Amino acid sequence: MSLDQNLNKILIIDFGSQFTQLIARRVREIGVFSEIVSHKKIKLKDINHSIKGIVLSGGPLNVYQINKYSFDKKILQLDVPVLGICFGHQILSKLNGGTVKQSKHREFGLANVYKKKNSLLTTNFFGIKKSKQVWMSHADQVSKLPKNFKVVASSTNSKFAIVENKIKKYYGIQFHPEVTHTENGKKLISNFIFLICKIKRNWSSMDQKNQLIKDIRKQVGNNKVICALSGGVDSSVVAQLLNKAIGKKLYCIFVNTGLLRKNEEVQVVQTFKKRLKMNLIYVNAEKEFLKKLKNVSDPEKKRKIIGNLFVKIFERYANKIKNVKFLAQGTLYPDLIESKSVTGSQTSKIKSHHNVGGLPKKMNLKLVEPLKFLFKDEVRKLGLELNLSKEIISRHPFPGPGLAIRMPGIITNEKIKILKDADYYFIQALREHGLYHKIWQAYAALLPVKTVGVMGDNRTYEYLCLLRAITSDDGMTADYYEFKKSFMQSISNKIVNSIRGINRVVYDVTSKPPSTIELE
Ligand code: XMP
User: Fold this and answer.
1) What stretch(es) of the chain map to CATH 3.30.300.10?
2) How many other C-beta atoms lie within 10 A of the C-beta of residue 320?
3) With contact defined as beta carbons under 8 Å apart, do 410 and 370 qualify?
4) Where would you tag: which of 42, 130, 232, 473 has the fewest CB atoms within 10 A of its CB?
5) Which ligand 1 atom lies nearest to the CA of residue 516?
6) Which numbered atom of ligand 1 lies nearest the CA of 478?
Protein backbone atom coordinates (compact mmCIF):
# COMPACT_ATOMS: atom_id res chain seq x y z
CA MET A 1 0.00 0.00 0.00
CA SER A 2 1.41 3.33 -0.90
CA LEU A 3 0.50 6.70 0.47
CA ASP A 4 -0.82 8.17 -2.72
CA GLN A 5 -2.47 5.11 -4.27
CA ASN A 6 -4.62 3.32 -1.77
CA LEU A 7 -5.03 5.49 1.28
CA ASN A 8 -8.67 6.62 1.60
CA LYS A 9 -8.80 10.26 0.73
CA ILE A 10 -10.65 13.40 -0.18
CA LEU A 11 -9.73 14.47 -3.69
CA ILE A 12 -9.53 18.22 -4.23
CA ILE A 13 -10.00 19.23 -7.82
CA ASP A 14 -8.23 22.54 -8.32
CA PHE A 15 -9.74 25.25 -10.49
CA GLY A 16 -7.00 27.74 -9.61
CA SER A 17 -8.10 29.20 -6.28
CA GLN A 18 -5.47 30.83 -4.10
CA PHE A 19 -7.01 28.79 -1.25
CA THR A 20 -6.75 25.28 -2.75
CA GLN A 21 -3.75 24.30 -0.63
CA LEU A 22 -5.57 25.61 2.40
CA ILE A 23 -8.52 23.26 1.72
CA ALA A 24 -6.09 20.32 1.57
CA ARG A 25 -4.45 21.37 4.80
CA ARG A 26 -7.78 21.76 6.62
CA VAL A 27 -8.86 18.25 5.57
CA ARG A 28 -5.57 16.85 6.82
CA GLU A 29 -5.73 18.82 10.09
CA ILE A 30 -9.09 17.16 10.63
CA GLY A 31 -7.27 13.82 10.30
CA VAL A 32 -7.99 12.62 6.77
CA PHE A 33 -5.63 12.34 3.81
CA SER A 34 -6.33 14.72 0.92
CA GLU A 35 -4.75 15.15 -2.46
CA ILE A 36 -4.88 18.03 -4.95
CA VAL A 37 -5.26 17.44 -8.70
CA SER A 38 -5.69 19.88 -11.55
CA HIS A 39 -9.17 19.95 -13.14
CA LYS A 40 -7.43 19.66 -16.50
CA LYS A 41 -5.69 16.40 -15.64
CA ILE A 42 -8.20 14.37 -13.67
CA LYS A 43 -10.34 11.95 -15.69
CA LEU A 44 -13.09 9.54 -14.75
CA LYS A 45 -10.73 6.58 -15.04
CA ASP A 46 -8.45 8.06 -12.33
CA ILE A 47 -11.14 7.93 -9.68
CA ASN A 48 -10.62 4.70 -7.76
CA HIS A 49 -12.21 3.19 -4.66
CA SER A 50 -9.87 5.15 -2.34
CA ILE A 51 -11.56 8.44 -3.21
CA LYS A 52 -14.35 8.86 -0.67
CA GLY A 53 -15.25 12.46 -1.40
CA ILE A 54 -14.52 15.18 -3.95
CA VAL A 55 -14.08 18.91 -3.35
CA LEU A 56 -14.30 21.32 -6.29
CA SER A 57 -12.17 24.35 -5.40
CA GLY A 58 -12.80 27.99 -6.10
CA GLY A 59 -11.11 29.70 -9.01
CA PRO A 60 -10.75 32.88 -11.04
CA LEU A 61 -12.92 31.83 -14.00
CA ASN A 62 -16.60 32.16 -14.72
CA VAL A 63 -18.66 29.13 -15.58
CA TYR A 64 -19.44 30.39 -19.10
CA GLN A 65 -15.77 30.60 -20.12
CA ILE A 66 -16.16 26.96 -21.06
CA ASN A 67 -13.22 27.04 -23.48
CA LYS A 68 -10.91 28.06 -20.65
CA TYR A 69 -11.39 25.02 -18.50
CA SER A 70 -11.74 21.37 -19.27
CA PHE A 71 -13.31 19.22 -16.63
CA ASP A 72 -14.46 15.66 -17.10
CA LYS A 73 -18.00 16.11 -15.79
CA LYS A 74 -18.60 12.35 -15.88
CA ILE A 75 -16.74 12.42 -12.56
CA LEU A 76 -19.89 13.90 -11.05
CA GLN A 77 -21.93 10.87 -12.05
CA LEU A 78 -20.07 8.57 -9.67
CA ASP A 79 -21.58 7.66 -6.35
CA VAL A 80 -19.11 9.88 -4.47
CA PRO A 81 -20.19 12.94 -2.43
CA VAL A 82 -19.17 16.27 -3.92
CA LEU A 83 -18.59 19.60 -2.17
CA GLY A 84 -18.30 22.67 -4.39
CA ILE A 85 -16.69 25.76 -2.89
CA CYS A 86 -17.25 29.21 -4.50
CA PHE A 87 -16.50 28.62 -8.22
CA GLY A 88 -16.83 24.88 -7.44
CA HIS A 89 -20.35 25.54 -6.14
CA GLN A 90 -21.24 27.50 -9.28
CA ILE A 91 -19.90 24.86 -11.64
CA LEU A 92 -21.71 22.11 -9.71
CA SER A 93 -25.00 23.99 -10.12
CA LYS A 94 -24.33 24.83 -13.76
CA LEU A 95 -23.46 21.25 -14.72
CA ASN A 96 -26.65 20.01 -13.07
CA GLY A 97 -28.93 22.38 -14.97
CA GLY A 98 -28.89 25.52 -12.78
CA THR A 99 -27.86 28.99 -13.90
CA VAL A 100 -25.10 31.31 -12.77
CA LYS A 101 -25.11 35.09 -13.22
CA GLN A 102 -22.98 38.05 -12.39
CA SER A 103 -24.02 39.20 -8.90
CA LYS A 104 -25.69 42.58 -8.58
CA HIS A 105 -23.38 43.21 -5.69
CA ARG A 106 -19.96 41.65 -5.84
CA GLU A 107 -19.08 40.33 -2.42
CA PHE A 108 -15.53 40.44 -1.08
CA GLY A 109 -15.05 40.16 2.65
CA LEU A 110 -17.20 39.32 5.62
CA ALA A 111 -20.92 38.55 5.34
CA ASN A 112 -23.54 36.90 7.55
CA VAL A 113 -25.23 33.69 6.47
CA TYR A 114 -28.57 32.63 7.98
CA LYS A 115 -29.85 29.12 8.44
CA LYS A 116 -32.80 28.14 6.22
CA LYS A 117 -33.05 24.40 6.84
CA ASN A 118 -31.31 21.54 8.59
CA SER A 119 -28.57 19.71 6.73
CA LEU A 120 -25.92 17.16 7.61
CA LEU A 121 -23.37 19.64 6.25
CA THR A 122 -24.30 22.30 8.83
CA THR A 123 -24.66 20.01 11.87
CA ASN A 124 -23.46 22.06 14.89
CA PHE A 125 -22.32 24.85 12.58
CA PHE A 126 -24.79 27.67 13.23
CA GLY A 127 -25.26 27.59 17.02
CA ILE A 128 -28.21 29.22 18.76
CA LYS A 129 -28.08 32.47 16.76
CA LYS A 130 -28.75 30.48 13.56
CA SER A 131 -26.27 32.72 11.80
CA LYS A 132 -22.53 32.84 11.22
CA GLN A 133 -20.01 35.29 9.85
CA VAL A 134 -18.29 33.99 6.72
CA TRP A 135 -15.71 35.09 4.14
CA MET A 136 -17.11 35.77 0.68
CA SER A 137 -15.05 36.41 -2.44
CA HIS A 138 -17.06 36.27 -5.65
CA ALA A 139 -18.42 38.28 -8.54
CA ASP A 140 -20.81 35.64 -9.94
CA GLN A 141 -23.40 33.61 -8.13
CA VAL A 142 -25.89 30.83 -8.68
CA SER A 143 -29.16 32.47 -9.77
CA LYS A 144 -31.34 29.38 -10.29
CA LEU A 145 -30.89 26.09 -8.50
CA PRO A 146 -30.90 22.81 -10.41
CA LYS A 147 -33.67 20.26 -9.83
CA ASN A 148 -33.62 18.51 -6.43
CA PHE A 149 -31.33 21.14 -4.86
CA LYS A 150 -32.46 22.89 -1.64
CA VAL A 151 -31.29 26.07 0.08
CA VAL A 152 -29.58 25.38 3.41
CA ALA A 153 -28.40 28.95 4.16
CA SER A 154 -28.56 32.42 2.60
CA SER A 155 -26.83 35.74 3.02
CA THR A 156 -28.28 39.14 2.17
CA ASN A 157 -26.66 39.08 -1.26
CA SER A 158 -26.44 35.35 -1.91
CA LYS A 159 -29.67 33.45 -1.67
CA PHE A 160 -27.84 30.21 -2.37
CA ALA A 161 -24.97 30.57 0.12
CA ILE A 162 -25.20 26.87 1.10
CA VAL A 163 -27.18 24.35 -0.97
CA GLU A 164 -27.62 20.60 -1.08
CA ASN A 165 -28.94 17.77 -3.17
CA LYS A 166 -29.37 15.08 -0.54
CA ILE A 167 -30.11 12.28 -3.00
CA LYS A 168 -26.94 12.81 -5.04
CA LYS A 169 -24.90 13.97 -2.01
CA TYR A 170 -23.97 17.21 -3.77
CA TYR A 171 -23.22 20.22 -1.56
CA GLY A 172 -22.38 23.77 -2.59
CA ILE A 173 -20.97 26.64 -0.52
CA GLN A 174 -20.65 30.13 -1.99
CA PHE A 175 -18.20 31.38 0.67
CA HIS A 176 -14.84 29.98 1.80
CA PRO A 177 -15.09 27.60 4.80
CA GLU A 178 -11.34 26.91 4.60
CA VAL A 179 -10.21 30.43 5.59
CA THR A 180 -9.96 31.36 9.25
CA HIS A 181 -12.16 34.46 8.77
CA THR A 182 -15.13 32.12 8.32
CA GLU A 183 -16.42 31.40 11.82
CA ASN A 184 -16.56 27.66 12.50
CA GLY A 185 -15.68 26.95 8.83
CA LYS A 186 -13.73 23.83 9.76
CA LYS A 187 -16.97 22.30 11.07
CA LEU A 188 -18.47 22.39 7.57
CA ILE A 189 -15.43 20.59 6.19
CA SER A 190 -15.43 17.99 8.96
CA ASN A 191 -19.19 17.40 8.53
CA PHE A 192 -18.61 16.79 4.84
CA ILE A 193 -15.81 14.34 5.60
CA PHE A 194 -17.28 12.39 8.50
CA LEU A 195 -21.06 12.69 8.20
CA ILE A 196 -21.43 12.74 4.42
CA CYS A 197 -18.39 10.90 2.98
CA LYS A 198 -18.24 8.69 6.08
CA ILE A 199 -14.50 8.42 5.86
CA LYS A 200 -12.46 7.30 8.90
CA ARG A 201 -9.51 9.21 10.33
CA ASN A 202 -6.28 8.00 8.73
CA TRP A 203 -3.91 10.95 8.91
CA SER A 204 -2.19 11.38 12.28
CA SER A 205 1.60 11.75 12.54
CA MET A 206 1.68 8.19 13.82
CA ASP A 207 -0.29 6.89 10.78
CA GLN A 208 2.04 8.79 8.47
CA LYS A 209 5.14 7.51 10.18
CA ASN A 210 4.08 3.86 10.00
CA GLN A 211 2.85 4.13 6.43
CA LEU A 212 5.94 5.98 5.21
CA ILE A 213 8.28 3.48 6.85
CA LYS A 214 6.43 0.62 5.12
CA ASP A 215 6.54 2.48 1.79
CA ILE A 216 10.29 3.14 2.08
CA ARG A 217 11.04 -0.51 2.90
CA LYS A 218 8.98 -1.62 -0.06
CA GLN A 219 10.60 0.87 -2.43
CA VAL A 220 14.24 0.33 -1.55
CA GLY A 221 14.25 -3.34 -0.56
CA ASN A 222 17.77 -4.40 0.42
CA ASN A 223 19.50 -1.58 -1.42
CA LYS A 224 21.59 1.23 0.01
CA VAL A 225 20.39 4.83 0.14
CA ILE A 226 22.41 8.02 0.45
CA CYS A 227 21.12 11.28 1.83
CA ALA A 228 22.58 14.77 2.04
CA LEU A 229 22.02 15.88 5.60
CA SER A 230 22.12 19.60 6.32
CA GLY A 231 20.72 19.62 9.83
CA GLY A 232 17.68 21.59 8.59
CA VAL A 233 14.12 20.39 9.25
CA ASP A 234 13.39 18.59 5.95
CA SER A 235 16.64 16.69 5.56
CA SER A 236 16.66 15.78 9.27
CA VAL A 237 13.15 14.31 9.05
CA VAL A 238 13.97 12.43 5.83
CA ALA A 239 17.14 11.00 7.38
CA GLN A 240 15.44 9.92 10.60
CA LEU A 241 12.53 8.35 8.69
CA LEU A 242 14.97 6.33 6.58
CA ASN A 243 16.99 5.51 9.66
CA LYS A 244 13.87 3.98 11.24
CA ALA A 245 12.97 2.20 8.01
CA ILE A 246 16.30 0.76 6.85
CA GLY A 247 18.84 1.50 9.62
CA LYS A 248 22.42 0.97 8.52
CA LYS A 249 21.54 0.75 4.83
CA LEU A 250 21.20 4.53 5.00
CA TYR A 251 24.35 6.62 4.55
CA CYS A 252 24.06 10.30 5.41
CA ILE A 253 26.67 12.71 4.17
CA PHE A 254 27.08 15.97 6.03
CA VAL A 255 29.36 18.53 4.40
CA ASN A 256 30.83 21.25 6.58
CA THR A 257 31.27 24.12 4.13
CA GLY A 258 32.78 26.35 6.80
CA LEU A 259 29.79 28.62 6.19
CA LEU A 260 27.48 27.06 8.77
CA ARG A 261 26.19 28.61 11.97
CA LYS A 262 28.55 28.51 14.96
CA ASN A 263 29.00 24.97 16.35
CA GLU A 264 26.50 23.53 13.88
CA GLU A 265 28.84 20.73 12.77
CA VAL A 266 29.33 19.66 16.38
CA GLN A 267 25.57 19.59 16.99
CA VAL A 268 24.80 17.65 13.81
CA VAL A 269 27.39 14.97 14.56
CA GLN A 270 26.25 14.82 18.18
CA THR A 271 22.56 14.44 17.25
CA PHE A 272 22.69 12.16 14.26
CA LYS A 273 25.76 10.04 14.83
CA LYS A 274 25.90 9.83 18.61
CA ARG A 275 22.26 10.12 19.70
CA LEU A 276 20.37 8.67 16.74
CA LYS A 277 23.12 6.22 15.77
CA MET A 278 23.02 6.94 12.05
CA ASN A 279 25.69 6.05 9.53
CA LEU A 280 26.93 9.61 9.22
CA ILE A 281 29.85 10.59 7.06
CA TYR A 282 31.18 13.93 8.24
CA VAL A 283 33.15 15.80 5.60
CA ASN A 284 35.16 18.80 6.70
CA ALA A 285 35.51 20.82 3.50
CA GLU A 286 36.02 24.24 5.09
CA LYS A 287 39.37 24.83 3.39
CA GLU A 288 38.16 23.68 -0.02
CA PHE A 289 35.19 26.04 0.03
CA LEU A 290 37.22 28.99 1.25
CA LYS A 291 39.83 28.39 -1.45
CA LYS A 292 37.25 28.29 -4.24
CA LEU A 293 35.54 31.40 -2.90
CA LYS A 294 38.73 33.42 -2.56
CA ASN A 295 38.25 36.99 -3.86
CA VAL A 296 34.74 36.23 -5.19
CA SER A 297 32.24 38.93 -4.29
CA ASP A 298 29.47 38.50 -6.87
CA PRO A 299 26.45 36.92 -5.11
CA GLU A 300 25.43 34.69 -8.02
CA LYS A 301 29.00 33.46 -8.48
CA LYS A 302 29.19 32.63 -4.79
CA ARG A 303 25.98 30.61 -5.00
CA LYS A 304 27.13 28.75 -8.12
CA ILE A 305 30.55 27.92 -6.69
CA ILE A 306 29.06 26.67 -3.44
CA GLY A 307 26.33 24.62 -5.20
CA ASN A 308 28.75 22.99 -7.65
CA LEU A 309 31.40 22.24 -5.07
CA PHE A 310 28.80 20.79 -2.76
CA VAL A 311 27.64 18.37 -5.46
CA LYS A 312 31.24 17.45 -6.30
CA ILE A 313 32.13 16.69 -2.71
CA PHE A 314 28.90 14.83 -2.11
CA GLU A 315 29.53 12.74 -5.21
CA ARG A 316 33.13 12.03 -4.19
CA TYR A 317 32.01 10.52 -0.88
CA ALA A 318 28.89 8.85 -2.25
CA ASN A 319 31.01 7.04 -4.85
CA LYS A 320 33.03 5.46 -2.07
CA ILE A 321 29.97 3.61 -0.84
CA LYS A 322 29.46 0.50 -2.96
CA ASN A 323 26.17 -0.39 -4.64
CA VAL A 324 24.12 2.66 -3.77
CA LYS A 325 20.87 2.65 -5.71
CA PHE A 326 18.85 5.50 -4.18
CA LEU A 327 19.18 9.14 -3.19
CA ALA A 328 16.80 10.42 -0.49
CA GLN A 329 15.52 13.99 -0.80
CA GLY A 330 13.26 16.23 1.24
CA THR A 331 10.91 17.36 -1.55
CA LEU A 332 7.66 18.65 -0.02
CA TYR A 333 4.08 18.67 -1.34
CA PRO A 334 3.98 22.37 -2.28
CA ASP A 335 7.04 21.75 -4.51
CA LEU A 336 5.05 19.13 -6.41
CA ILE A 337 1.71 20.82 -6.77
CA GLU A 338 1.27 22.36 -10.15
CA SER A 339 1.22 26.09 -10.64
CA LYS A 340 -1.98 27.87 -9.74
CA SER A 341 -2.43 29.26 -13.22
CA VAL A 342 -5.65 27.88 -14.66
CA THR A 343 -5.84 29.74 -17.91
CA GLY A 344 -2.13 29.83 -18.64
CA SER A 345 0.39 27.06 -18.89
CA GLN A 346 0.73 24.67 -15.99
CA THR A 347 4.29 23.94 -15.18
CA SER A 348 5.47 21.87 -12.30
CA LYS A 349 7.96 23.90 -10.33
CA ILE A 350 10.53 22.11 -8.24
CA LYS A 351 12.80 24.43 -6.33
CA SER A 352 16.16 23.42 -7.64
CA HIS A 353 18.13 24.89 -4.78
CA HIS A 354 16.41 22.56 -2.33
CA ASN A 355 17.60 19.49 -4.16
CA VAL A 356 21.04 18.09 -4.68
CA GLY A 357 20.97 19.25 -8.28
CA GLY A 358 22.03 16.90 -11.04
CA LEU A 359 23.10 14.04 -8.82
CA PRO A 360 20.56 11.33 -9.60
CA LYS A 361 21.08 11.72 -13.34
CA LYS A 362 24.87 11.59 -13.15
CA MET A 363 25.10 8.78 -10.66
CA ASN A 364 22.15 6.88 -12.03
CA LEU A 365 20.29 6.95 -8.75
CA LYS A 366 16.59 6.60 -8.16
CA LEU A 367 14.92 9.08 -5.85
CA VAL A 368 13.30 8.38 -2.49
CA GLU A 369 11.12 11.34 -1.59
CA PRO A 370 9.08 10.29 1.43
CA LEU A 371 7.86 13.82 2.27
CA LYS A 372 6.48 14.59 -1.14
CA PHE A 373 2.87 14.40 0.06
CA LEU A 374 3.40 16.50 3.17
CA PHE A 375 3.06 20.17 3.98
CA LYS A 376 5.76 21.84 6.11
CA ASP A 377 3.68 21.83 9.29
CA GLU A 378 3.05 18.10 8.79
CA VAL A 379 6.78 17.49 8.34
CA ARG A 380 7.41 19.22 11.68
CA LYS A 381 4.82 17.08 13.48
CA LEU A 382 6.22 13.94 11.86
CA GLY A 383 9.69 14.93 13.04
CA LEU A 384 8.48 15.12 16.64
CA GLU A 385 6.78 11.73 16.22
CA LEU A 386 10.17 10.43 15.06
CA ASN A 387 11.82 11.63 18.26
CA LEU A 388 13.68 14.54 16.74
CA SER A 389 14.10 17.33 19.28
CA LYS A 390 11.90 20.42 19.25
CA GLU A 391 15.08 22.41 18.72
CA ILE A 392 15.74 20.79 15.34
CA ILE A 393 12.10 20.80 14.29
CA SER A 394 11.39 24.45 14.99
CA ARG A 395 14.67 25.93 13.85
CA HIS A 396 14.66 29.01 11.65
CA PRO A 397 15.39 28.33 7.96
CA PHE A 398 19.02 28.56 6.89
CA PRO A 399 20.06 28.98 3.24
CA GLY A 400 22.12 26.36 1.40
CA PRO A 401 24.96 28.84 0.61
CA GLY A 402 25.02 29.66 4.32
CA LEU A 403 26.93 32.61 5.71
CA ALA A 404 28.40 33.38 2.28
CA ILE A 405 25.22 35.26 1.31
CA ARG A 406 25.12 37.09 4.63
CA MET A 407 28.52 38.59 4.00
CA PRO A 408 28.39 40.85 0.94
CA GLY A 409 31.82 41.26 -0.62
CA ILE A 410 34.70 38.85 -0.38
CA ILE A 411 34.81 36.01 2.12
CA THR A 412 37.70 35.67 4.55
CA ASN A 413 38.36 33.48 7.56
CA GLU A 414 38.38 36.53 9.78
CA LYS A 415 34.95 37.70 8.54
CA ILE A 416 33.45 34.23 8.94
CA LYS A 417 34.61 34.04 12.54
CA ILE A 418 33.21 37.49 13.36
CA LEU A 419 29.90 36.71 11.69
CA LYS A 420 29.48 33.33 13.38
CA ASP A 421 29.91 34.99 16.77
CA ALA A 422 27.53 37.87 16.02
CA ASP A 423 24.85 35.46 14.77
CA TYR A 424 25.36 33.23 17.80
CA TYR A 425 24.88 36.09 20.29
CA PHE A 426 21.81 37.35 18.45
CA ILE A 427 20.09 33.96 18.34
CA GLN A 428 21.04 33.26 21.98
CA ALA A 429 19.49 36.57 23.02
CA LEU A 430 16.28 35.77 21.11
CA ARG A 431 16.03 32.45 22.92
CA GLU A 432 16.77 34.00 26.32
CA HIS A 433 14.07 36.63 25.82
CA GLY A 434 11.49 34.08 24.62
CA LEU A 435 11.42 35.69 21.16
CA TYR A 436 12.92 32.94 18.99
CA HIS A 437 9.61 31.23 18.19
CA LYS A 438 7.77 34.50 17.58
CA ILE A 439 10.14 35.19 14.71
CA TRP A 440 10.12 33.26 11.41
CA GLN A 441 13.77 33.84 10.66
CA ALA A 442 16.54 35.89 12.24
CA TYR A 443 20.24 36.26 11.59
CA ALA A 444 23.23 38.56 11.73
CA ALA A 445 25.03 39.75 8.58
CA LEU A 446 28.36 41.46 8.15
CA LEU A 447 28.44 44.45 5.81
CA PRO A 448 31.60 45.17 3.81
CA VAL A 449 32.09 48.62 5.26
CA LYS A 450 34.08 49.83 8.18
CA THR A 451 33.02 52.81 10.26
CA VAL A 452 34.63 54.84 12.99
CA GLY A 453 33.82 54.21 16.62
CA VAL A 454 35.17 55.13 20.00
CA MET A 455 35.87 52.57 22.69
CA GLY A 456 37.43 53.74 25.92
CA ASP A 457 39.87 56.36 24.83
CA ASN A 458 40.56 54.71 21.52
CA ARG A 459 39.27 55.35 18.08
CA THR A 460 38.15 52.17 16.30
CA TYR A 461 37.58 51.46 12.62
CA GLU A 462 35.63 48.24 12.29
CA TYR A 463 32.86 46.33 10.51
CA LEU A 464 29.14 47.06 10.53
CA CYS A 465 26.86 44.27 11.74
CA LEU A 466 23.32 44.12 10.40
CA LEU A 467 20.60 42.26 12.27
CA ARG A 468 17.54 40.96 10.47
CA ALA A 469 14.46 39.41 12.09
CA ILE A 470 11.26 38.85 10.17
CA THR A 471 7.76 37.50 10.56
CA SER A 472 6.30 35.55 7.67
CA ASP A 473 4.03 32.60 6.77
CA ASP A 474 6.10 30.95 4.09
CA GLY A 475 9.05 33.22 3.32
CA MET A 476 7.39 34.58 0.17
CA THR A 477 6.49 37.84 1.86
CA ALA A 478 7.87 39.13 5.13
CA ASP A 479 7.76 42.01 7.57
CA TYR A 480 10.41 43.08 10.04
CA TYR A 481 9.92 42.19 13.70
CA GLU A 482 9.42 45.08 16.08
CA PHE A 483 11.76 44.68 19.06
CA LYS A 484 11.57 46.68 22.27
CA LYS A 485 14.25 49.33 22.63
CA SER A 486 15.71 47.56 25.69
CA PHE A 487 16.28 44.37 23.67
CA MET A 488 17.94 46.26 20.83
CA GLN A 489 20.19 48.08 23.26
CA SER A 490 21.26 44.92 25.05
CA ILE A 491 22.02 42.93 21.90
CA SER A 492 23.88 45.84 20.35
CA ASN A 493 26.01 46.18 23.50
CA LYS A 494 26.64 42.47 23.69
CA ILE A 495 27.85 42.26 20.08
CA VAL A 496 30.04 45.34 20.16
CA ASN A 497 31.52 44.53 23.56
CA SER A 498 32.16 40.85 22.91
CA ILE A 499 33.34 40.72 19.33
CA ARG A 500 36.56 42.26 18.20
CA GLY A 501 35.94 43.53 14.67
CA ILE A 502 32.43 45.06 15.02
CA ASN A 503 31.86 48.55 16.40
CA ARG A 504 28.36 49.33 15.09
CA VAL A 505 25.05 47.42 14.89
CA VAL A 506 22.11 48.32 12.64
CA TYR A 507 18.66 46.77 12.32
CA ASP A 508 17.08 46.05 8.93
CA VAL A 509 13.53 47.45 8.79
CA THR A 510 12.66 46.62 5.20
CA SER A 511 9.89 44.21 4.31
CA LYS A 512 9.88 41.63 1.52
CA PRO A 513 9.08 42.81 -1.09
CA PRO A 514 10.86 45.09 -1.95
CA SER A 515 13.82 43.48 -0.12
CA THR A 516 14.59 39.80 0.10
CA ILE A 517 15.11 38.01 3.38
CA GLU A 518 18.77 37.25 2.72
CA LEU A 519 21.16 40.02 1.64
CA GLU A 520 22.46 38.31 -1.49
P1 XMP B 1 14.96 35.27 0.10
O2 XMP B 1 16.29 35.81 0.47
O3 XMP B 1 14.89 34.78 -1.32
O4 XMP B 1 14.78 33.97 1.00
O5 XMP B 1 13.85 36.22 0.46
C6 XMP B 1 13.59 33.24 1.19
C7 XMP B 1 13.90 32.05 2.08
O8 XMP B 1 14.73 31.12 1.36
C9 XMP B 1 15.98 30.96 2.02
N10 XMP B 1 17.00 30.89 0.96
C11 XMP B 1 17.59 29.75 0.56
N12 XMP B 1 17.43 28.49 0.96
N13 XMP B 1 19.08 27.78 -0.58
C14 XMP B 1 18.19 27.50 0.40
O15 XMP B 1 18.06 26.33 0.78
C16 XMP B 1 19.28 29.05 -1.06
O17 XMP B 1 20.10 29.28 -1.95
C18 XMP B 1 18.50 30.07 -0.45
N19 XMP B 1 18.42 31.41 -0.64
C20 XMP B 1 17.51 31.89 0.23
C21 XMP B 1 16.11 32.17 2.93
O22 XMP B 1 16.98 31.92 4.02
C23 XMP B 1 14.69 32.41 3.33
O24 XMP B 1 14.29 31.55 4.36
Assistant:
1) 406-507
2) 11
3) no
4) 473
5) 5
6) 5
* CATH 3.40.50.880 domain position(s) in the chain: 9-196
Q: Is 351 in the pocket of ligand 1 (CB under 6 A)?
A: no
Q: Which CATH number applies to 406-507: 2.30.30.100, 3.40.50.920, 2.60.40.10, 3.30.300.10?
A: 3.30.300.10
| DSSP3 helix / strand / coil % (the chain, rounded to 5) | 35, 25, 40
Show pLDDT as tens, one digit a residue, over the chain (520 residues): 356 667 999 999 999 998 999 999 999 999 999 999 999 999 999 999 999 999 999 998 888 876 777 889 999 999 999 999 999 999 999 999 999 998 887 888 999 999 999 999 999 999 999 999 999 998 899 999 999 999 999 999 899 999 999 999 999 999 999 999 999 999 999 999 999 999 999 999 999 999 999 999 999 999 999 999 999 999 999 999 999 999 999 999 999 999 999 999 999 999 999 999 999 999 999 999 999 999 999 999 999 999 999 999 999 999 999 999 999 999 898 887 754 444 443 333 333 444 455 566 677 899 999 999 899 999 999 999 999 999 999 999 999 999 999 999 999 999 999 999 999 999 999 999 999 999 999 999 999 999 999 988 899 999 999 999 999 988 888 999 999 999 999 999 999 999 999 999 999 999 999 999 999 9
pTM assigned to the model: 0.86
**C-alpha 42, offset from chain centre:** 24
CATH 3.40.50.620 segments of the chain: 205-393
Is the CATH code 3.40.50.880 the one for domain 9-196?
Answer: yes
Question: Of 344, 250, 317, 409, which is closest to residue 61 (Cα–Cα)?
Answer: 344
Separation of 464 CA from ligand 1 center, angstroms?
22
> Catalytic residue at 86?
yes
Domain topology for 205-393 = Rossmann fold (3.40.50)
How far does residue 399's CA lie from ligand 1's centre (Å)?
5
